[in-house]
């Protein structure tokens, strides 16, 4: 049976994907940029538009690391504005489950679901580092081992709040003088390890019942969390074989939670570079990668592994001859390297020697993500191959250029997928759950 492909778009902000210095690039903050990218995604009949979020400016050697995410507006605020300039496109926000509270997050997401007519989605993420926690005056309060248990309870509590209103609770019966069917709406009580709250939830149930839940994570805990409670999981895999292995592993976990394979969509984050010929696309992709990995970015990437100041080294020269500091970290606010630094450095040196790579060339090779490069026809065929052979259910495209980075994909590749009969010609329903083919959420009883 031919599978239908699901597509989504990610507005990345200033980071190591975006080439913000490109003369064609627009603002990363102005609403017009968000609106252009969202409208392009909707024109291409994409399932949803996704915004990530950072809760603190990242630092490198004690200074703001402006080669990564800097100064991005708050996601739910932006998406609420986008609800007014789109009609079908799903609107997905990253909201942290470590430094927020269930009541407020549930209320804001229910509000977005109402404002958008049932298009809200929540990417549930966690944080454990004290550096980010300083912004909330609770740095280090949560052990890393507890972040998924808190996230799971956070999500469960949010679901209880959404379920505290029946779908038909609001009647607005002027004749009877009753706005709600039952005066006891919104009552909730949750007692658990991380949250002990009770009261009345003041947001009526949204059109989708629950917003669509998205989760990202490749760890065993992350995969299990997605299998138990998520509607979408996005991942990062560079080959068909890796994608198929991840797909099999996550999908097999669903049965233990009373779920079907189609209840969870697997959408890796990818990039796309098009050309009139394969050679032109490859040349353009190489230019983009060098723009993404600037000399400063290359040195910063190595410093995160070496744990040392490497600013004296030439990015276009050989790898540092000093050994890594196995105890010290120089970056804050981003995922820290957890493996064996010594073994990693030895592996990198061997690779650089084998291929005669400079520091910058090595970082370009090491940091490449799954990318579709080629003519529109070749890219359409490659996307379809991944989906039809169960390496994914679709993709979240991360353009390198804001806000026009999706234009060619929508204009040149999407029509070919529609021609193949593997992608919708139009939206079949008003809600994001309709786009993704998801059933209504299961109602959870308060605990």
Automatic annotation (TrEMBL):
Task: Give the Luciferase-like domain ranges.
Answer: 22-389
One Pfam family assigned to this protein is Bac_luciferase
Give the highest taxon in the source lineage: Bacteria
The UniProt annotation places FMN binding at 94, 148, 219
State a single Gene Ontology molecular function.
Answer: monooxygenase activity
Which CDD domains would you find in this protein's record?
Nitrilotriacetate_monoxgenase
Give the Gene3D superfamilies listed for this entry. Answer: Luciferase-like domain
Report the InterPro entries cross-referenced here: Diverse_substr_monoxygenases (IPR051260), Luciferase-like_dom (IPR011251), Luciferase-like_sf (IPR036661), NTA_MOA (IPR016215)
Keywords from UniProt, A to Z, are: Flavoprotein, FMN, Monooxygenase, Oxidoreductase
Q: Which family does it belong to?
A: Belongs to the NtaA/SnaA/DszA monooxygenase family.
**PANTHER family, per this entry?**
ALKANESULFONATE MONOOXYGENASE-RELATED, C2H2 FINGER DOMAIN TRANSCRIPTION FACTOR (EUROFUNG)-RELATED
Name this polypeptide is given? FMN-dependent oxidoreductase (Nitrilotriacetate monooxygenase family)
Q: Which organism is it from?
A: Sphaerisporangium krabiense
Q: What is the lineage of its organism?
A: Bacteria, Bacillati, Actinomycetota, Actinomycetes, Streptosporangiales
């Amino acid at each position: 049976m031919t599978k239908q492909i699901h597509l989504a778009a990610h507005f990345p902000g200033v980071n190591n994907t975006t080439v913000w210095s490109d003369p064609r690039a627009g603002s990363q903050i102005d609403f017009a940029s968000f609106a252009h990218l969202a409208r392009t995604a909707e024109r291409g009949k994409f399932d949803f538009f996704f915004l990530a979020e950072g809760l603190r400016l990242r630092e490198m050697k004690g200074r703001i690391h402006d080669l990564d995410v800097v100064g991005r507006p708050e996601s739910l605020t932006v998406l609420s504005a986008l609800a007014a300039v789109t009609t079908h496109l799903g609107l997905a926000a990253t909201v942290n489950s470590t430094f927020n509270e269930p009541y407020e997050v549930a209320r804001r997401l229910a509000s977005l679901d109402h404002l958008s007519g049932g298009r809200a989605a929540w990417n549930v993420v966690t944080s454990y580092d004290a550096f980010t926690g300083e912004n909330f005056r609770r740095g280090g309060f949560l052990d890393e081992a507890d972040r998924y248990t808190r996230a799971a309870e956070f999500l469960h509590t949010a679901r209880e709040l959404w379920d505290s209103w029946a779908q038909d609770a609001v009647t607005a019966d002027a004749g009877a003088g009753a706005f709600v069917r039952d005066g006891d709406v919104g009552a909730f009580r949750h007692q658990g390890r991380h949250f002990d709250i009770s009261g009345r939830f003041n947001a009526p149930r949204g059109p989708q019942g629950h917003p669509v839940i998205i989760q990202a994570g490749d760890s065993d805990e992350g995969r299990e969390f997605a299998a138990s409670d998520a509607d979408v999981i996005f991942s990062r895999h560079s080959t068909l074989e890796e994608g198929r292995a991840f797909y099999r592993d996550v999908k097999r976990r669903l049965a233990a939670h009373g779920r079907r394979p189609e209840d969870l969509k697997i959408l890796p984050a990818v990039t796309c570079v098009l050309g009139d010929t394969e050679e032109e696309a490859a040349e353009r992709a190489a230019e983009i990668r060098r723009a993404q990995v600037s000399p400063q970015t290359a040195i910063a990437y190595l410093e995160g592994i070496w744990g040392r100041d490497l600013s004296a080294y030439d990015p276009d020269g050989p790898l540092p001859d000093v050994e890594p500091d196995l105890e010290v970290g120089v970056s804050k606010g981003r995922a820290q390297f957890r493996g064996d630094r010594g073994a990693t450095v030895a592996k990198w040196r061997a690779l650089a020697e084998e291929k005669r790579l400079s520091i910058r060339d090595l970082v370009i090779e090491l940091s490449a993500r799954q990318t579709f490069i080629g003519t529109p026809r070749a890219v359409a065929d490659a996307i379809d191959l991944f989906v039809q052979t169960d390496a994914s259910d679709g993709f979240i495209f991360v353009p390198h250029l804001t806000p026009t980075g999706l234009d060619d994909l929508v204009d040149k590749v999407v029509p070919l997928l529609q021609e193949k009969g593997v992608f919708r010609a139009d939206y079949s329903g008003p809600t994001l759950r309709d786009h993704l083919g998801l059933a209504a959420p299961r109602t959870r009883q308060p605990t």
